Amino acid sequence: MESRRTLEASLTLLILVTSSYGGHSQPVPTLRWNQALVTFHNQLTEEVQVFYTSDYCYKCLFQHLVTVEHNNNASAVVSTKFSLTLEVKSQIRNATLCRWIPTYEEAGHYSVWIQMSEATNNSSCIFAVDKKPNIVYMPLLVAALLMAVLALLFIARPYIYRRCCASKCIKTICCQGSQHSVDNDSADDCEAQQNTTKAKPARLLSLDTFRGFSLIVMVFVNYGGGGYWFFQHEPWNGLTLASLVMPWFVFVIGTSVVLAFTSMQRRGVSRLQLLRKISWRTVVLMMIGFCFLNYSPIDGSLSWSWLRVPGVLQRLGFTYFVLALMQTFWGQKEISLRATRWWNPVQDVALYWPQWLIIILLEALWLCITFLMPVPDCPTGYLGAGGIGDYGLYPNCTGGAAGYIDRLMFGKNLYRYPTCKEIYHTTQPFDPEGVLGTINSIVIGFLGMQAGKIIIFYKGKTISILCRFLVWAAILGISTAILSKCTRDEGFIPVNKNLWSLSFVLCAGCFSFLLLGGMYFVIDVKGWWGGQPFIYPGMNSIFVYVGHTMLGYYFPFSWEMRFQQDHWEWLFQGLWGTSLWVLAAYLLYRKKFFLKI
After folding, report:
1. pLDDT tens string 146-168
2. Alpha-carbon span 205 to 208, nearest angstrom
């Protein structure tokens, strides 16, 4: 995963400038996906300079793009991933000649003519399209249609099979009366197969499906997401689909902890046995993340010079450890609904007050450290990306207290290509799986535990389960809107996946309750869907995650792409690699092999 992130960082540089002078143009550079070519034609008698800033860069300083001499032209390859604001300045007059927010699209060629306006005797900029851009979303539309056709065929498969089975039975009865006993056997077999498909399993299939769905989206995102911005992480504040997949996975961990540990406690498993299981699982997860997923073939063997201490599995392991401890010591084995008490409507909350007290204290700790801890040369409570953001006043304050704590503890052994590096031009390493964010990782895992308690508490009462899921989603969604002020950058606590801010955790929890509730209704209650194909990787999540991280960038899962001018090959490679891991999980499911720790 880290090697692909490094590749992403190198391929999606915001601006790559190529210039030409004296009217003799250099060869047109080859454009990659998310890039466009802009040629500036200066018809003035003075030299001008072009500056840019990204609209996704909060309060960022304008950066130099290209210098255009008088009566000459210069070209620049610009990124279409983020919208840009361009301005042309005259160094002689120290004035801005024009400023505009262009709409550049992938593979388009554009011209900007800088000239004097005869009507107003002022400088003006005229925008023109030299070559029409690509239809960016065509590959995604084709892929969506193909997957929809495959889904319809999969849905129709049982009905076609039953129809064929029934016709065979009728044909056998009508045409082969002498083999009456065989006919009865055939009919009985068909009926038995139909009844088998209607049998409801005891396992909560929606939970495995939700886990598999979040995992498969994570794998697809790690393969580049086809180069589309909504399948990649936000530069700093904001929310995309890629930002939600890991919180969803943590949410499922919390739900699984409640269901699994409640079952084991009811079977009489001792607390000591549970502690051994918790410790072993935590150590193995953290060691896999630390020792194996740190390896990079480019850098050679494991080296302390580039070693990353935090990581995804390290955070998942520690989060699981805390959640499992809370469930072991303060989890209720049996819950009675018969007694009439004033707090009956909230018994699934009130009975677990020690756990809630721990979570409240942890969140209070996160808030105090984030907003009250002094950070050298940085404003207290700073949540920005640093670099050129905030008018360049705090270039080394990336992440505020969270970044400072990580750099203090781990030095430079952190993630070196944070998402803010591209447009904020940050120089400090920042790890999205850092220490302070782990606190809120525990919080969203605890929200998942609450979902598990609701499922156990109201077992057999579908309406009550779904209503409580909706109530929790509404509470979390409203809280997110208040904290963020329904804006990307101007809220009290912006939604930020890098920091795992409180508003981000609440927002992810809202979507988690909605998705799990919807899957529970469709899969476990109505039986309209069996969870395929997501259920297969969901039941072998450790194998798929570790496997795709270690082997996913070797053939046949991926290859060196030759056509990088658009999204077609990038999207195909991502879907191909993801599909192979789904197929591997399905084959292991058929063999009844499940990798567990």
Report:
1. 888 887 887 777 777 777 766 66
2. 5
